[in-house]
Amino acid sequence: MVVDRGAPYRDPGRPLHEIIAEHASREPGKPAVIYEDGSTLTYGELDELSSRIAAMLASEAGVEKGSTVAIVMFNRLEFVPAYLGALKAGARVVVIDALSMSEDLEYQLSDAKPKATIVDSEVYSRERDREILDRLGGRVYLAEKLGELAKGYSPEKVKVGYDDDARIFYYAGVAGRTLQVIHTHRSFVGAVAPLAQAEGISRDDVSLVTSPLSHVLGLDAALFTALYAGGTAVLMKRFDEEKAARLAKEHGVTYMVGAPLVYQRLLEKGVTRDNFPRLKWAMSGGAYLPPEVQKAWMEKISPLLQVYGMTEAPQCFATTVERNKIGSLGFPLPGVEAKLVDPEDETREVGVGEKGVLLIKGPMVMKGYADPEETRRAFRDGWLWTGDILERDQEGFYYFRGVKKRMLKYKGYPVFPRDLEILLEKHPAVAKAEVYGEPDPSVGQIPAARVWLKPGAQATPEELMNWVNSRVAPYKKIRKLVIMGVLEEKR
């Protein structure tokens, strides 16, 4: 279908869980989510189970409007009713990456202060993390037992306002460190609806979810675009090339969204159009997409589009089948205003062919950070300062040209150097640490560090790396560390 990109944004004007409930009332037997093992939740089942979970959270954990509910899960079927159930209870949902461990997990739970946490048994089986969850997670529920536990509760409705807080992320890319990024129901819908509108996603579509649901690429661009449109989402626990090809063919996948490595690995595996017979388009996001990968996929499989966004403003640019250029991030989605300003003089807007820092307005822009001062720094007269440097061509296509903020990308995951520096500087031998991203074609960038020791202290690079890496998620691990010497105390 031909999509009119110039059409104004059509704001649905109500929370996403209400939109999904409308689909359930019209087509209760239609598959909403299919897990990789074939287990399925229809729209009717999803709506009823999420409502029962909402009632259970309210009754047992005291969850009410404004409370926080944490979800710590790998991709699994129960994730979706847990997420929607928390929203229906009026809670703010914080999704914590199931790979988070030790200090990462402890920081996020102690900061979020959830009244309830829904956790994957695989996470709960980690002894140290179980102690943290029991101490800081409020009432803890195992994901596998959600359906059984919620069975005795009658669905209840809590009136949720469109501008009430809906969710919290802990990837503050613009601020450059880990802190709460707060989104309302309005900006949650605003992160999903414009992309669905621009790409023409409908109830007939089937999405393949290859990315973690702890990342907006998986959560919004892949999962909730399908549910918003009344389509079906096919959910993978972890990405695997053979499984992805099998699921795409088995379930008639019509679109998929993933990190660049997804497409690179599928091509290396030798997939063909036969593996994706109904695929209309694929979309890459979260990291740099090599032009040769994009070209190869388009020659062999389908159009490969790009989507651009950040935690503070998910899915704000994209290309479409009708308008797609190799290497381009695309152009503003419906409802988005964008401008590029001189990195050295932000009062001057730059023109075609000039590099500038991107500022945006749009329905997907966050409410703000939990830290009011960081929120003030992130906005310029109502415009979100992204810290990304882009360039625009004469046709209105935008291209990524660098960053003015402190963040690196490892396999599409954002990693904040300041978080790792703070952790390194907690080691008794370390006086100062500098963390940076070292280019690596296979993963994007690897976290690397330069360290200065305290006078009289001793430590090896291996010791310091092990000390940090045992406390963070795998994608945050420091892969290279050099001890620069001793930092003498100032007199």
Describe the 3D structure.
- This protein is α/β, with parallel strands linked by helices.
- The chain folds into two domains: about 15-390, 3-Layer(aba) Sandwich (Rossmann fold); about 410-485, GMP Synthetase, Chain A, domain 3.
- Helices cover about 30% and strands about 25% of the residues.
- It has a nine-stranded mixed β-sheet with strand order 2-1-10-9-11-12-13-14-15, with helices on both faces. A seven-stranded mixed β-sheet has the order 6-5-3-4-7-8-18.
- Helix 1 (about 15-25) packs across helix 2 (about 45-60), helix 8 packs across helix 9 (about 215-230) and helix 11 (about 260-270) packs across helix 12 (about 290-300).
- The protein is globular.
Please describe the topology of this protein.
Blueprint: H1 16-26, E1 31-35, E2 40-42, H2 43-61, E3 68-72, H3 79-88, E4 92-95, H4 102-112, E5 116-119, H5 121-124, H6 127-136, E6 139-142, H7 146-150, E7 165-169, E8 181-184, H8 185-199, E9 206-209, H9 216-229, E10 232-235, H10 241-251, E11 255-258, H11 260-268, E12 281-284, H12 291-300, E13 304-310, E14 313-318, E15 331-332, E16 337-341, E17 355-361, E18 368-369, H13 372-378, E19 379-380, E20 383-392, E21 398-403, E22 408-410, E23 413-415, H14 417-424, E24 430-440, E25 444-453, H15 461-469, E26 480-486
Helix pairs in contact: 1-2, 2-3, 4-6, 8-9, 11-12
